[in-house]
Queue: 2 jobs
Job 1
Amino acid sequence: MARAGLTAERLIHAGAELADEVGFAQVTVSALARRFDVQVASLYSHVKSSAELKTGIALFALAELADRVTEALAGRAGKDALFAFANAYRDYAREHPGRFAAAKHPLDAETAAASAGPRHAQLTRALLRAYDLDEPDQTHAVRLLGGVFQGFVTLELAGGFAHSSPDAQQSWDWSIGALDALLRNHAKTDGE
Amino acid sequence: MARAGLTAERLIHAGAELADEVGFAQVTVSALARRFDVQVASLYSHVKSSAELKTGIALFALAELADRVTEALAGRAGKDALFAFANAYRDYAREHPGRFAAAKHPLDAETAAASAGPRHAQLTRALLRAYDLDEPDQTHAVRLLGGVFQGFVTLELAGGFAHSSPDAQQSWDWSIGALDALLRNHAKTDGE
DNA sequence: ATATCTACCTAAAGACATTAGGCAAATAAG
DNA sequence: CTTATTTGCCTAATGTCTTTAGGTAGATAT
């Protein structure tokens, strides 16, 4: 029999595609084996376990998303950069809902530290440079923005804003615009 | 043999407790049967399926959370109400991480409409009354707040802010305070 | 006390995860 | 080019979870 040519990378990538098609929760070793037309046990030469496979997909998605954001941020600053970051994030989630779900997959501390997670934080700090925030405000802002992006997009993808007007796009633009104003108001030593 | 006295309600409640102990994803019909010391198949007289059980826990958690928020909001308005709402939400998630995860469980449109989800939106609108926003700004604000609460708390619970200073509490207070300012700036016909 | 109902049971089948051990295809050594 | 070695994929088997079908005994009504 001809070999299928499996590798951990191909499995993770196919797992990401499968996640976008059927949902991250439905990504199983068995489904992946069917997709490659091999026996289930064969995958275990390349991934240690189902958990490791899902972690691999999570790391892949986090890195891909960070790449997108990096590209979106290039040559921009201030409000322009904020919108570019936010839209890159949201667009990725809408194009790749399964990978986005994977990116939210919990990682143990060690894995998280080696993931693209810290890169996301760095990208946010780069974006915030134009807003000229003191510490610890900058860290607060990193967390607020992370929360808004992830939370809003998650709710939108879950259908939370469907069947009601105005459409989600408008609320998104309004929210990011409001955050821009919020950040400008907090520049440097500015209280309350 | 003495009967265990199972009912759908007891199963859902026990499922919520189990979720807090071992994680919502680990709540299974089997684990619940072990907890009640009955055979697995016995549960199927009370719940149609594993999916229905999880949906039941999700609805329970959403309602419980809405109750908490309702209580927190009583007699408060403006910034005070905003902090009360936000803290009730976050405290619930920290006290009941499994139920909080359950509350994020995707529901089909019909179930979602009959859930406490719309009540959450109404509570947010009640909170926003003091900020005197025009439509569609009020809807935008409902969505922004929903996103921030859910996103920030999810990231915090996932350990995203661990091992770094300042602690999450400070970022939370800063963020909610900043949102209060944001909302005040957008009162009525206020552009930019 | 008998009849009905139903809560919980046993039994069985199907899906997924995982491990152990085997064969054949790719690769390296002669 | 042949032989030796590695290793990619296979078969087989076990355990867990979900779900359905049909039975029994304990609760409830007559």
Job 2
Amino acid sequence: MTSVKSNKPTEGELEILQVLWNNNKASVRTVHETLLKVKDCGYTTTLKLMQIMFKKGLVSRDDSNKIHIYTANVTREKTQKQFLNKMIDSLFAGSSTNLVLQALGNHKTSNEELKKIQVLLNQLKQTK
Amino acid sequence: MTSVKSNKPTEGELEILQVLWNNNKASVRTVHETLLKVKDCGYTTTLKLMQIMFKKGLVSRDDSNKIHIYTANVTREKTQKQFLNKMIDSLFAGSSTNLVLQALGNHKTSNEELKKIQVLLNQLKQTK
DNA sequence: CTTTAGCTACGAAATACATCGTATATAATG
DNA sequence: CATTATATACGATGTATTTCGTAGCTAAAG
């Protein structure tokens, strides 16, 4: 039996994953520079975090050159699911519909987006 | 200008809020007993957590009797919004639609629920 | 070749959080 | 009245997370 831990990434790790997902791969420098637009911390902080993520297996890296290049080991989708499920459980009484309704209600959504949702909704109705 | 901190409740706090929301108000004993179904910890742990929440202003309490009765100071809806927004930001590239699509796609949703969503969707389309 | 700039490694401190043990007060029980 | 059960208060510990400073390596610039 293989150990199934699959720990959620932390806040800080999530911010870094975000950059890696957007760029496909990135150096510490790039990640740090990007994060600076959002938060404020030293370069070595970002570095350390990414090193920890590497040790955890959350990211891979190519260290054949001086500048190490990192890539995410988890997909955005898988992580989204992970957090969504957690959230549905702990905040929406287990009902994904509640979450959807709340999310739809909160934000103003463009016509384009409403269409996308309608399409998916139709598909779901089909399969019934 | 009033200080706008509004810190997110932690995991543990969320579990407690959940019970308070469901029961409207509750003693430490009740909260603890309920939590035991889900997690495993000592009574004083729950107590301490609730005391901290009180100090933070996350909950109120009636301590006129020996058994203190707690109530949530934040609504479920407000907290849901808080977490949803955070999540949309950090995991869904700012698009609530992405979140909705992902949430709908993951779980199997009953016909009843699909209808509810359809109703809201129609309303949103109307207001365009 | 020496200096400088940029990089990684790593220990250490600061912070946040969850957990528990012990002290103390008080109501209920016998 | 003494004992027991049940409350709250609170300090202390353990662990996770974040942050930073410093050391050491190497390539580029002078």
